[in-house]
Amino acid sequence: MSATLECRDLKKSYGPNMALSGLNIELPAGKIIGLLGPNGSGKTTLIKLACGLLTPTEGEIKVCGQQPGTESKALVSYLPERTYLPQWMTVTDCMDYFQDFYPDFDYQRAVSMLESLHVPAKARMKTLSKGTKEKVQLVLVMSRRAKLYLLDEPIGGVDPAARDYILNTIISNYCEDSTILISTHLIADIEKVLDEFIFIQNGQIVSYASTDALREDKGKSVDEYFREVFRC
Amino acid sequence: MLSKLIKYDFKALSRVLLPTMAAVAGASLIATLSFLFTEKSYSSANNGGLATMLGGLLAVVMVLAIIAACFLVFFIICAHFYRNLMTDEGYLTFTLPVKTSEILWSKLITAMLWTIISVVVIGLCVLMFVGLSTAASGDGRQLFAQISDALRQMFALFNTQSALIVFEAVLCVLVMLAFSILHIYLALVIGGVVSHRHKILAGIGFYFVISIVVSILTAIAQYYFGSSLIGGINGMGSVIFNPQNEIEAANQLVSAAQPYYWFSIGFTAALDVGCFYLSKYFLEKKLNLE
Amino acid sequence: MAWQFSSERPIYVQVSDQIVSNILTGVYKKGEKLPSVREFASLAAVNPNTVQRALSELESVGLIETQRNTGKFVTQQGEAIEMAREKRGEVLASEFLKSMAALGYSPEQTISLLQRAQIREVKSDECNA
């Protein structure tokens, strides 16, 4: 079986700036993995390459053995770091939209999650607060039965209480054969849900290990280790 | 998947364009009725001067409203394309499990559909205004009689050849409409790919760049193929201005124009295909959403 | 309320410790059905894989048993639980001694401190009663 996400010598440049400079990694199925690194380290670029929003400058990236394209997009559930749902749609419209385009979308699950978050289903997106919009997006993204979830800063914009709920949503919706890649700065908040972590800097992998192994070997949490590795 | 894309694009456009069209229809209805009312009071009362002025004003407002509606339709179609692909919504659109070509087809088809709907609605409104306001006077009745007479004659003459002409005309309009839309789309796509901050401005710039390229291509094409086309028309002078040969002249004119017709249809269709694939290429290979 | 974890030990170890504590303090009784992996994950706000690993550790020491199709149960065997209790007691006691030693108390002083504390505890209990 091929890896859920595989990068070989992956390079991406925006004009003269190298965002990714020869990145190699292979992510297995069934893990929750943190993609951690300082600002501008290439986290978002890597995620966008994986979901086909960007094309590599060099090297290759594969999702479940496929290059980003129509087939791979059906396997990837992507949460961008911004609100991307059309503002004129109601929450229900958005659910219908996902239902129409993604065969793996679980409508009932989305409805019940939105109910427990007290999101008004008939409200238009533009009338919702930023945090609520993020909740709607997360619910839609996590209601899919995808192979690879790419969550870019899923908890950045919400309050600590909602953060807990969102982490819980991620944990309880995750199934064994899929992989979740979470990019964030809030390491302390998410590290207990992580199986593995990736440190990325200047477009290259600095470290890729299991969180438990890190604690066993170094007696450190990911958060502490991050502060040590990326000390300014 | 294409039908689903069309469904949502159509919905997004209808949301804004349906009220616009309703407003146009409502405005022209009011304008027509007011015009009829002032016309009536003009003929019955002495102080008709003011009423006529009012009527004239209404007509001007009506014309302005229709021009505004045309611009609005145009603007809404462009804005929808831009917003759906080049802004944050692009993150949703481009991560759907659909082909880029399907996205473009959907945008093209819905834009063409709505342009045609708008043209029909606006045309009917103009017809209503002109028709009803002139029908009140004798001129109008005469005009209508003439129009219906002409139409009757046209239908009497209707044969395979005229069917062909109609077919050609429709095809021509569709191909050119598609081009005017794809032209804008391509400009917006390139503008969005090239610039990160001033995507719209860059898009407008590329609109003119593409226009220039297209006129150069047209000039080249006419230079190479044009002379052979014009040759057919040259020998027509003798027939055209002979009123006894009216129908024959028309037939000859039409058949002489055939190659030119098909040439321009073919040429525009080629431009359509070019714009489509260039847009597709840029969206697939060069897109960098911030 | 999510469980609290310290940063120096693996989380699965801390999860299994917490479950052991819950068994020893009677939150999960002998022979009782335990929450599912997913429920534990949600309860502790940790990764289900971590819970899975913690549970298999506990299973290997015989504290919990898997019954096919029905889930995981606290063992019926008192022995295993008593062993775990003893082990936990030993760990706590030695940890306590260590921290007292760090404060400068000898083991003997610590023990006499404990005795005094116990007398106070008994008295305050009597007052409350």
Class per helix and strand makeup of chain A: alpha/beta
Q: Please write the CATH class name of the largest domain in chain C.
A: Mainly Alpha
Q: If interface size is counted as residues with C-beta under 8 Å from the partner's C-beta, which chains form the largest one? A: A-B, 24 and 24 residues
Give the low-pLDDT segments of chain C.
none
> What fold name stands as the CATH topology of the largest domain in chain C?
Arc Repressor Mutant, subunit A
Number of domains of chain C: 2
Write down the Rg of chain A: 17 Å
**Helix/strand order of chain A:** EEEHEHEHHHEHEHEEHH
Radius of gyration of CA atoms of chain C, rounded to a whole number: 18 Å
Helix count of chain C equals 5
> Helical element count of chain A?
9
Indicate the proportion of strand residues of chain A. 25-35%
Query: What is the distance, rounded to the nearest whole angstrom, between the alpha carbons of the first and last residues of chain A?
Result: 41 Å
Average pLDDT of chain A works out at 88
CATH homology superfamily name of the domain at 12-82 and 148-229 in chain A = P-loop containing nucleotide triphosphate hydrolases
CATH architecture of the largest domain in chain C: Orthogonal Bundle
